[in-house]
Structures are given as structure tokens and as C-alpha cells.
Amino acid sequence: MAQSVLDIDVPRWDQATFMGRLRHFFNITDCRTALLPDSRLDEAKALVEGCRAGSVPPGTTEEQLYYAKKLYDSAFHPDTGDRMNLIGRMSFQVPGGMAITGFMLQFYRTVPAVVFWQWVNQSFNALVNYTNRNAASPITLKQIGIAYATATSTALATAVGLNLYTKRAPPLVARWVPFVAVAAANCVNIPMMRQQEILNGIVVTDENGNKLGHSRKAAVTGITQVIISRITMAAPGMIILPIIMQRLERYRFMQVRLLVFMVPAACSLFPQQCSLATSKLEPELRESITSQYGDKVKYVYFNKGL
């Protein structure tokens, strides 16, 4: 039987190792959770919050608690506790990303098709980036609009430009154009959508969760890691598959399996709760921490987002 002393927030798998993070993200990116109704997710949230308060319904097993935590982590934002929109959740990345990637790789020959599917992809990415941001740093509707427009323009300019440039290139080279456009857009979309974090910094804490201040360097570190993860997530399907697959039917078969693996694998490259040596922080923040805690705080911790 589950005990009220169970600390539901202690990771089930070691987050300091890649394999531990991989098991964690396989768990919370399970696309089956995207099919569950809001009422079931709210039940899971209530059970998790009850466990945190030391109150668990009689007869509840540890497996039931861990499943509730799985649903909570997949659907609720780690900073606010609010339920995230369905399309922006990482559990929706496999079906959503699979469909869009398939269309981009199939309809890459004409400019109208390139424009349309890159626009669809950047709209999808913008929503995912906004949903998985560090929510402690607010962003206005105007800033969201500018970020969306800038990233979409970058993707379109890259895709259309390369598409025209590779007209006489071998078909395989032309099939790689969508990936280059996606990579370029990620380098713009994510920092723009999370620009407030870069400008104002994100909350950093000590190992016990005590707030120490805001750090711009932590924000840049976290966002850089997210960009690398997103590009890695897209790479196998958009680079390798065009080399080995000639028929769309076979491509779709393989694409599902690649995305099922690559979404959690890419998310696992870096811990979601990142650490940064205090010595690498901005001088003013470092001095503030030192004045309060002396040399006790060697590292600070922060949520990098996904």
C-alpha cells in the first residue's frame, strides 16, 4: 500500500544519468496520455497534490501514485501547475510532429507547398515553445506575435531560398531542405518566444529550492540546450530517412518509430532541472549569493523548459 510519506516529487529514475532521463521522458511523452479527458488529468493532479500534502486515499498503491504523477508531468506545467494546451504538450509531439514532418518531406518541390507546410510547422513549434517555456518569465501577446512572425519568416526564407537553389541538385539534396529550414527556424523561434527569460533572467534556486535571484546566463544556457534538443529531435527523420526510404508508405512506417524514440531521447540530452556553477553567474548575482550564504552555494538550479 502507498504510504503518505512517499515523496512523489523525487524522480523515479536518476536524472543525473542519460538513461534515467530517457526512462523519465519515455514515461511522460507517452502519446496515449494525450487521449485522456481533462477530468482524468484533473483527478491525477488532485492525487499528486494530496500526496504532497501527506494525504492519500486508503487503498492507493504506489503504482497508482506514480501513474498519477506520469499524467501530471505530461499535462501540467512544472512552474505554474496549470494544465497545458493539448497541442503544446510533449506527449503530442509524436503524432503532431509525425504528420507535419511527413508532409514537409513529401511536398517540398513547389514554392507554395514549401511556404504552406513551413508555416504550419512554425505555428506548431511556436505553440510548443510557448507551452514549454519557463513560465516564471511572463511574455506579452505583442512579444509572442513578433517571435512567431520572425521565426516563420526565417523558416520560409531559408526553405524557399534553398528550394530554388537546389532545383538542379540531386533529389536527395532537395529533400534535406526542410531540415535546414527547421534547424534555422528553431534557432530563432525558441529564443524569440522566450526572450523575456534572456532579457530579465530566470529564477535560480539552491539545491533545496530556495530562491536566490534571477540569472540571464542561466536562461541562455537553458535555451541553448533546448535548441540543441529540438534540432536533434528532428534530425533522424529529416536527414536519415530520405537516404534510405523511397516510398512514402515505408517512410511513414519508420517515421512513427523514429519519433517515438527521438522525442524522449532528445529531451533527455540535458536535465530539465539544470545546474550552473555559481562562479559562472552574473557578477552582481554572484556577489548577492556570496553575501548571504558565503561559499556554501556552489551551484544554482533552474528549469530550462522543454
Automatic annotation (TrEMBL):
GO terms for cellular component: mitochondrial inner membrane. The chain crosses the membrane at residues 227-245. GO terms for molecular function: monoatomic ion transmembrane transporter activity. Pfam families: SFXNs (PF03820). It is a multi-pass membrane protein. It comes from the Eukaryota. It is found in: Mitochondrion membrane. The keyword Chloroplast does not apply. GO terms for biological process: serine import into mitochondrion. Keywords: Amino-acid transport, Membrane, Mitochondrion, Transmembrane, Transmembrane helix, Transport. Belongs to the sideroflexin family. This is Sidoreflexin. It comes from Denticeps clupeoides. The lineage of its organism: Eukaryota, Metazoa, Chordata, Craniata, Vertebrata.
